[in-house]
Amino acid sequence: MTRHYSALSLIREGLNGQRGWEPAWRDARPQAHYDAIVVGGGGHGLATAYYLAKNHGITNVALLERGWIGGGNTGRNTTVIRSNYFFPETAAFFDFALKLYEGLSQDLNYNIMFSQRGMWFLGHDRHAMEMLSRSVNAMLLNGVDAELHDSDSVRRHIPGLNDRPRFPVLGALNQPRGGTARHDAVAWGYARGASRLGVDIIQNCEVHDFIIEAGQMRGVETSLGTIRSDLVGMAVAGHSTVLAAKAGIRLPISSYALQAFVSEPVKPCLDTVILSPATGTYLSQSDKGELVIGAGLDMFLSYAQRGSLPWMERAAAGVVELFPAFSRMRFLRQWAGLVDITHDSTPIIDKTKVSGFYISAGWGTGGFKAIPAGGWCLAHLMATGTSHPLATGFCLDRFRSGALIDEASASGISH
Amino acid sequence: MFLIDCPYCGPRAETEFRCGGEAHIERPSPHGEVTDEAWSNYLFYRQNPKAEHRERWVHTAGCRRWFNVARDTVTHRIIAVYAMGETMPAAAGEPR
Fold first, then answer.
1. Mind listing the pLDDT tens digit for each residue in A341-356?
2. Between chains, do A252 and B44 touch, taking CB under 8 Å as contact?
């Protein structure tokens, strides 16, 4: 059976009628006991399982997913990767994620199609330009690449921008190392890597309850029976509060629906990522040719994986305002993901009051770009019992002590 | 998109309203004796049920008055609409 992906194996299997490919990961059935359990088969959970095995040698691991892997927010985001944050803690963390993404295809032997096509954050008035130049300075001080461009330069780099928009484009921040990756490939690549190292990837396995004895985590009750382990990590995005409540834990998180949609596929016409919060536009083009459009949050609690029509209209209006040429393109698909929002828009990677139970939550609207670092740090926390230096600030106690990392205001996260 | 039955103006489109979050939150007191935990709970911890949720809405593009709504967060079905300061009506459960 062929396991390794390379030009040579491609030729060999081509001559062999493609009959020898090994499945990318084993579809495992649960055993009674594991050294560690990871709940949630999205990017964060899969990366956690992979790094538990790779970085810490813990290979007797079960990854439990209620549906199919990568079917939640990992398959529902706009695939953008960037690290344009303001505070040192978040900038260091998200840039570490970006660096891991840069080497991920090689590391996983799986092409995640990471295209560093740049990410343009447009400014439409003088105040926005002042905030963007402040942002550029903060990024440079934090060792992250950033460029400030004036209006002419923006137009030279982004063909097709409206000549006379209602809200003029005065300039932009560009992060050249930002870009997009194939989101499904990130999930599949991590699943394949983890499975090879011994992790059991168990799909269609819903966790109903936790087994806790005298404050110590002992395992989980699932739709496929009881699975025991004294070490459990959880990364379940929009359902974080629902599942944590089963372990008696309250989290400072609210769940909202974040909507996105794609157009019909067309020839390559946009070779970068455009973000214009003022006009409600978040736009890129996928390798398949679809325009990928991100909308905003429906600002009321939601566990419905569908967005509202008003936001769809607003996002489409923003795209047409900036790129009149796209006005006659048709929508192909629309969907929403359930995102877990914290008050300061900074995630939580921390232990809990239940010994042996660790959580990674609060990724809000920006979880995809954080996947490698989120998995890296949760695996570190689970394996060693102490926070990774990059994630010490992402603690639950900050909501009591007041040491918030308020990226909601600082880097202009729009939700 | 859903219709919200403003108690003052009648049924109107969702776009005319804004949601003000969880209803019936009381500020802890007396001020000098509130613990860090209670204060943190008041500021940052909210109910986040995958079920019926009591929340405040304001008719921003209409009468601009506030009222309470009981809404299912999965189906968005509005179970009850009632005035600020009132408790949930006993007859709740009937869809409006």
1. 999 999 999 999 999 9
2. yes
Q: Does B56 touch chain A (CB under 8 A)?
A: no
Q: What residue has token string 């103006």?
A: B9
* Total number of domains in chain B: 1
* Chain mean pLDDT for chain A: 96
Quick one: closest CA in A to B51, which residue?
A: A303
Number of H helices, E strands in chain A: 12, 19
Instruction: Single out the residue of A280, A334, A287, A270 nearest to residue A307, CA to CA.
Output: A334
pTM above 0.90, yes or no: yes
Cα A29 from chain centre: 27
Chain A residue with minimum CA distance to B1 = A308
ipTM: 0.93
Q: Which residue range forms the structural domain that includes residue B48?
A: 3-92
> CATH number, domain at B82?
3.30.2270.10
Sign of CA dihedral A270, A276, A277, A278: negative
**For B12-47, how does the pLDDT look when each residue is reduced to its tens digit (9 = 90+)?**
999 999 999 999 999 999 999 999 999 999 999 999
